[in-house]
Amino acid sequence: MKRLYGVIGSPIAHSMSPLIHNDAFLQNGMDAHYHAFHVEPDQLETAVAGMRALGVTGFNVTIPHKEAIIPLLDSVEDASLQIGAVNTVVNKDGKLIGYNTDGRGFVEALKEVVELKGKQVLIIGAGGAARAIFYTLALEEGIQLDICNRTVSKSEDLIKEFSLERIARSITVDQAAKEIQNYDVVVQTTSVGMFPQINDTPLQLVSVKNNAVFSDIIYNPIETKLLREAKALGAVTQNGVHMFAYQAALAFKIWTGKFPDTDRMKKIVEEHLGGKTC
Ligand code: NAP
To answer: Which of 39, 152, 179, 208 has its C-alpha lying 20 to 30 A from 64's C-alpha?
Structure first.
């Protein structure tokens, strides 16, 4: 019998997850289908009960349900509990188990372009995506992390909550801009610069460190203003398509045991968005 998978969220109509997962099922010769379900917050509990009742094999969870779904699941992987958000659920013999592949997806993608050991990293932003990324980056050996956020109390709270004072500090956006030459890696996690506000940038750049890597998790547009400016100053840049592909690939692996072709996933997203990844 065909296995069913999906994603729940709101809004969801423009999700690219069905495109890449349905292609991966085809590539792996699996009789399965992935569907995007529009679910409003007041329908989340009913939707999760429906997933159980219908025997859906696995599903992704996106905005605004990543936190709210936790109490509705039978169990949640420890790291995802710490992060406080779930983006992937697997139905194992009727039990719904939650995972978070956002942080690991981001770090796997970043490691394609930079070795992280001992690196000085700046994270811009302290929202939901930053939480998963900060938690996961902090597991890397010898890494030093600075976080700057418009609301400074949020980055301070994040460091305290994860007890990462030894390797992390919170700084202002102005301070980060002044000290930008210190960073080997800059990770942009805010929504600043996302379509349609494509001329906005979270940080004014005047220079970058030699061989610096700038990674922006935004994928629409394919190249944000921040990445464009960093590239012009000599940085290696990576856009959000890479994280998107890896978080999806890790979810696919949790559901099926198979790791799909991430280059193919990136290409599909890139074609859909009408640009070239960087
Ligand atoms: P979120 O929880 O709402 O966090 C938003 C972040 O952006 C906060 O740090 C917020 O700062 C900052 N921000 C928003 N507007 C700002 C402004 N005008 N000036 C300065 N800072 C501003 O959102 P999220 O879920 O973390 O998502 C953030 C971005 O990541 C979105 O663009 C999303 O599409 C992208 N994303 C990409 C992937 C991927 O796979 N590539 C995955 C997840 C998310 P304050 O704390 O001061 O409000």
So the answer is: 152
